[in-house]
Amino acid sequence: MRVAVVGAGYVGLTSAVCLAHLGHDVRCADIDADRVARLTKGEAPIHEAGLPELLAAGLASGRLRFVVGASDAATGADVVFLCVQTPQGADGAADLTFVEQVAREIAPVLGPEAVVVNKSTVPVGTTRLVERVLSEAGVVHDGVAVASNPEFLREGQAIHDFLNPDRIVIGCDRPEAAGVLTELYSGLRAPVLVTDPASAEMIKYAANAFLATKVSFINAIANLCEVVDADVREVALGMGYDARIGFQFLKAGPGYGGSCFPKDVAALLHTSRAAGYPFELLAGVEDVNRAQRERIVDKIRRAAGGALAEVPVAVWGLTFKADTDDLRESPALAICERLLTEGARVRAFDPAAGEQAAERVPGVEICADAYAAAEGAGVIALLTEWDEFRWLDYERIATLVDRPAIVDARNLLDPPAMRRLGFAYSAVGRR
Ligand code: UGA
Predict the structure, then answer these.
(1) CB 145 within 8 A of CB 177
(2) Is residue 28 annotated as part of the catalytic site, yes or no?
(3) Is residue 200 in contact with ligand 1, taking CB distance under 6 Å?
(4) In angstroms, what is the span from residue 259 Cα to ligand 1's centroid?
(5) How far is CA 195 from CA 143, 145, 404, in A?
(6) From the CB of residue 194, how many other CB atoms can be counted at a distance below 10 Å?
(7) Which helix (DSSP H) or strand (DSSP E) does residue 229 occupy?
(8) Residue 278 φ/ψ region, left for φ over 0, alpha for ψ in the -120 to 50 degree band, beta for the rest
(9) Residue whose C-alpha is closest to residue 120's, from 267, 11, 20
(10) Residue 269 and which of 212, 285, 294, 404 are 20 to 30 A apart at CA?
C-alpha cells in the first residue's frame, strides 16, 4: 500500500520505518527540512534500538522516503497517518493546532478513497474534529474516511513494540476503511479490535492512565513500606505472581515522567472535568507522582547530613527512564532543579543525554562518566535505572567520594553489598 506518515517524531518515524519494513511504500513528512535531510542520509535523530538498521534498510529498498511538507507525502496515498505533536496546553488539555493544520493542508490532495488516521494521542472527539476540518476544506466523506489507530509504543522499545503489538486498535465507523487498516497490518500477528472512534481514543488514555496508576500505587505502597519496615520489591513480587495483577509497572522510584504519562493523565483529567465527572482517583495518581520527587529530594538532603547548601551531589542518570535519550518531564531533571534551588552543586552524568540536559537545567555540570561525577561528592543520587550503573567499580567510587552516601531512587543496587563497602545506602520502600 502507499502510505503517508505526517510527522517524523518518535511515533511517526517508528511507524514509517516499520511500515516500510512490512513492505509498504512509505513517504514520511516533516516540516523540519534539516531533519528530513538528515533522515534521507540515514541519520537517526533519536536514540531507539533497531531504528538505524530499519532506516537504512528502508532507504536502500526505495520503499521509504522523507519529504518536507504533508501534502507532498499525502498525494496519492491510500492511508495517511497523522503523527504530529499534541502538546499540553496551560489548562491540561491537549493542543490540537498541529492536527488541524495538517488536516487542512492535506485536504486538497487526498485521493477519493484515502483513509486518514489519527495516531497521535488525541482527546476523545478528535476523529470527528478531523472529519469536520476535512469537510470544511471540501473533502467528500463518501470516499475519504477518518479513523483512530492509537499506538502503544514504549520509548526505547518502540520498534519492537510496533512489530510485536499486544493488540491493534482501530476506531472507525466505516467497515471498508477498517478493512484497509486491517490489511495494512496483516504482516503483524496481533488481535485487531475494531471499534468506534471515541472508544479507540479512550482506550489509549485509559491504558496510559492505568499504567500511571500502577506506578503511583506502588510508590504509595513503597512509602508505607518505609514506615512499617517492609520491602517494596518483595511486596511487588508477591503481588505480581497474581496473574490478575502482573509484575509490570510495579517498580517504585521517583515517579513517572516522559512525554506521555504526565501529559495524558493531565489531558484525561481535563476531559473528565469538562464532562462534569470528578475523576478523583486519577487526581490522586498525579498528586502521589508530584510528591514522590520531593521525597527523593528529602532523602538526598538527609543523606547529605540535613542540608544541601554547597554540597556536591553526584547525579547519575537524567533521562526519564533508561535506554532513551528523552529528557521530557524527567523526574531526574526536576530533582536536579530542586537540588540547585537548595544550593547544592550538581555534577551529573547520563549515558545518553548529558549535553542536552545541561541546556535544559543551567547550573548542572555534566561529567564524562559516573566516576568523574562522583569525585568529591557529598552524596550520590542514582536517578535513572541505566544498567551500566549496576556494574560500576564501587570500591573505586568509595575512594573518590568525599562522603560515601548513595540514594538509589530506582532500587537498582544491592543494599548489603553497598553497606559492606561502607556506603550509607538508602533506596525507595526498602529497609
Ligand atoms: C508509555 C506507555 O508505556 C506506552 O504504551 C505508550 O505508547 C507511551 O507511553 C505513549 O503514550 O506514547 P513511555 O512513555 O515510553 O511509554 O514510558 P514507560 O516505559 O511506560 O514509562 C513511563 C514512566 O513510568 C517512566 O518515567 C518510568 O520510569 C516510569 N515507571 C514505569 C516506573 O516508575 N515504574 C514502573 O514500574 C514502570
Answers:
(1) yes
(2) no
(3) no
(4) 9
(5) 19, 14, 56
(6) 17
(7) none
(8) beta
(9) 11
(10) 294
300 close to 313: Cβ distance less than 8 angstroms: yes
CA 265 to centroid of ligand 1, rounded, Å: 12
Residue 17 CA, distance from chain mean position: 19
Q: pTM, whole model, 2 decimals?
A: 0.94
* Measured CA distances, 218 to 194, 265, 329 (Å): 33, 17, 20
CA 261–ligand 1 middle distance (angstroms): 7
How many distinct helices (H) and strands (E) make up the chain? 17, 14
Cell digits for 36? 528530513
Q: Ligand 1: which of 164, 208, 382 to mutate, judged by most atoms within 8 Å of the beta carbon?
A: 208
Contacts of 194 (CB under 8 A, 6+ apart): 170, 171, 172, 178, 182
Which single residue is written with the C-alpha cell 518515524?
A: 13
Give the C-alpha separation, 240 to 339, whole Å. 34
CA pair distance 221, 385, nearest whole angstrom:
20
Cα 176 to averaged position of ligand 1 atoms, centre (Å): 34
Whether ligand 1 lies within 6 angstroms of the CB of 83 is answered as no
Note down pLDDT in tens along the chain; length 431 residues: 999 999 999 999 999 999 999 999 999 999 999 999 999 999 999 889 999 999 999 999 999 999 999 999 999 999 999 999 888 788 878 889 999 999 999 999 999 999 999 998 888 999 999 999 999 998 877 789 999 999 999 999 999 999 999 999 999 999 999 999 999 999 999 999 999 999 999 999 999 999 999 999 999 999 999 999 999 999 999 999 999 999 999 999 999 999 999 999 999 999 999 999 999 999 999 999 999 999 999 999 999 999 999 999 999 999 999 999 999 999 999 999 999 999 999 999 999 988 888 888 899 999 999 999 999 999 999 999 999 999 999 999 999 999 999 999 999 999 999 999 999 999 999 97
CA-based nearest residue to 107, from 75, 134, 143, 78: 134
Q: Which of 28, 83, 260, 336 is catalytic?
A: 260
Strands 312-316 and 379-382: parallel
Main-chain phi, psi angles of 316, to 5 degrees = -110, 115
* Atom of ligand 1 lying closest to residue 212 CA: 24
12 lines ligand 1 (CB under 6 A): no
360: Cα within 13 Å, side-chain hemisphere: 19
For residue 257, give the ligand 1 atom closest to its CA.
26
Q: Is 121 in the pocket of ligand 1 (CB under 6 A)?
A: yes
Which grid coordinates belong to 90? 496551560
